[in-house]
Each structure stands twice: as structure tokens, then as C-alpha cells.
Known about the structure:
mainly beta
Amino acid sequence: MTYNGNWKIDRNENYEKFMEQMGINMMKRKLAAHDNLKITIEQTGDKFHVKESSNFRNLEIDFTLGVTFEYSLADGTELSGSWTMEGDMMKGIFNRKDNGKQLTTTRVVQGDELIQSYNYDGVDAKRIFKRA
Length: 132
């Protein structure tokens, strides 16, 4: 599958502004911008196993496309939502448990890059990963 493999963060676009909009304090934003995030994705049909490893935490997540699950961001923000496939793009729609606002995330593979895009409360950002 296209997403299978190991991915390492390469660069961010507008990520600090996005985190600010999410309500993440300045100290955590500065640290998160240099989190050295690595993601391993294993896809089998519509089931995904994702490992996230960074300077701050290690996490493993299992989910099935179209099935709602719970997730906590590195800052502790709790979300509920699901991933779907739209063509070759993964799309996640998540709602924050604290304020009900929606976070939309997409993942698309272009060449040797995994581009993860975010939209929250009118602010867009991207994190671009390279195949490791």
C-alpha cells in the first residue's frame, strides 16, 4: 500500500501558527516544531497500524477506515473522529472534546514525501515527511 513504510519529519509550513490557533502555549509550540517525529504506517486493507515516535512520546494507534476512535494529541488535547479514503488521499475529521471544534487532517503521498495537512478554525498548516 502507498502509505506503508517509515516516515521522518523533514519540514513544516505554518505549523507554529496552527498550534497557536489550537491553543498550545508558546513553550510547547517551540518544542513541537523540533519534535523529530517519525511515523511508521502499516496498512492492511482498510485497517491501519500507526506508530508515532518523537522527542516527547511514543504512541501506537490502530484504526479502521470509517470507524470513529479516540485520540490524544501530544499536548493532551483529546479528539474523537475517523479517517476515510478519498481517492489516494486519507482524510481525517476529528472533533475536540473540550470545545467541539473540528480538526481536519489529510495525508497524501507524493513521490518520496508524505504530506500531512491540517485545518483548524481557519488556519492551515503542513508537515512534510520523507521516506526513511
